[in-house]
Specification:
The protein is an all-alpha fold. The protein has 13 helices and no strands.
C-alpha cells in the first residue's frame, strides 16, 4: 500500500536551485573519477531530502538511467563503436547474469522491511567504497581463466552486480569495470564503454520490476525533483570530467571512500 510518506520527501519542499546544486555536487564527485556518482546520491536522497529507503532507490535508479543515456554517446565517441561492438560476447556474458540479478534484487528490495533495507544499503556502500579503492589504487590484471570457467564466472558476477545495482539504484559501473578487466582482460577505457552497454538494459529491467510495486508512484509524484537533480548530476559530471586529474588519486580516492563509509554508518543507524 502506497503512503504519503512513500510519495514525497518527509521534509518540506526544497527549492530547485538547492536540488540542482546537490545533484551537481554529486556529479562532480563522480565525474572526477569517471563515474556517475549514484552511490553518493543515494544517502543524500535519504539524509538530506528525507526520502524513505525504497523511494530513494527508485529515484536514484531513474536518475542513473538518465545519466547513462547521456553519457553513452559521449563514451562511444571516445572509444570507437566498432571496437566496443567487437566485444559483444563480453556484454552478452555479463547480461546473462545481470538481467536476472536486477529482477531479483528489485524483488528483494520491495519485500524487505525498511529497517533491514537501510542496513543492507549500508553494507553495500561499504562494498562500493572498497571497490572504489581497489579499482583506483591498484593495477588490475586479468585472471586469464579458460573459456569453460570464464563464461559461468561472468554470469555469476553479472548476477551479483545486477542485484547490487538494483538494490542501490546505481548503474553498477563501479563493479562492472573491474569485473570486465579481471575476467575478460579488457583495457580500462574499453571496459568503461562496455559497462554502460551492460548497465542500460540492466537498469531498465530493475525499473520494470519496481514499476509493479506501489512504491513506484514516488517517481511520478516527484518528476520535477528527479528532472532537476538529474540535470544537476549531468552538469556536475561534465565539470567533474574537466577536473579529472586535478586532484591526485592518492588524495581523492581515500576521501571519497571515507564519505561512502560515513554515509554507510549513518544509513545503518537510520530508522
Amino acid at each position: 500500500m502506497t503512503t504519503d510518506q512513500t510519495l514525497r520527501p518527509l521534509r518540506p519542499t526544497h527549492s530547485a536551485p538547492a536540488v540542482f546544486g546537490a545533484g551537481a555536487a554529486i556529479g562532480v564527485l563522480g565525474g572526477m573519477i569517471g563515474l556517475g556518482g549514484a552511490e553518493f546520491r543515494l544517502p543524500l536522497l535519504i539524509s538530506l531530502f528525507g526520502f524513505t529507503a525504497l523511494s530513494a532507490i527508485i529515484l536514484n535508479k531513474a536518475m542513473s538511467l538518465v545519466v547513462v543515456l547521456v553519457a553513452l554517446p559521449a563514451r562511444l565517441t571516445a572509444v570507437p563503436a566498432a571496437e566496443v561492438a567487437a566485444r559483444w560476447p563480453v556484454a552478452i556474458n555479463l547480461l546473462a547474469g545481470s538481467l536476472l540479478g536486477a529482477w531479483a534484487g528489485a524483488s528483494w528490495a520491495v519485500r524487505m522491511r525498511s529497517t533491514t533495507l537501510y542496513k543492507v544499503l549500508a553494507a553495500l556502500m561499504v562494498l562500493m567504497a572498497a571497490a572504489l579503492v581497489v579499482t583506483h589504487t591498484t593495477t588490475l590484471n586479468t585472471l586469464a581463466l579458460p573459456l569453460w570457467a570464464q563464461i559461468p564466472a561472468g554470469v555469476a558476477a553479472g548476477f551479483g552486480i545486477g542485484v547490487v545495482a538494483a538494490i542501490m539504484g546505481v548503474a553498477g559501473g563501479e563493479l562492472l569495470i573491474p569485473t570486465i578487466v579481471l575476467l575478460f582482460g579488457e583495457a580500462i577505457k574499453t571496459a568503461g564503454s562496455l559497462s554502460l552497454l551492460v548497465s542500460l538494459p540492466t537498469m531498465l529491467v530493475a525499473l520494470a520490476r519496481y514499476s509493479r510495486d506501489g512504491s513506484f508512484a514516488v517517481l511520478s509524484a516527484n518528476l520535477r525533483f528527479t528532472a532537476v537533480m538529474a540535470a544537476g548530476s549531468i552538469t556536475g559530471a561534465v565539470l567533474g570530467g574537466v577536473l579529472l586529474g586535478v586532484f591526485p588519486d592518492l588524495v581523492l580516492i581515500p576521501a571519497l571512500a571515507v564519505i561512502l563509509f560515513v554515509s554507510a554508518v549513518k544509513l545503518a543507524r537510520h530508522t
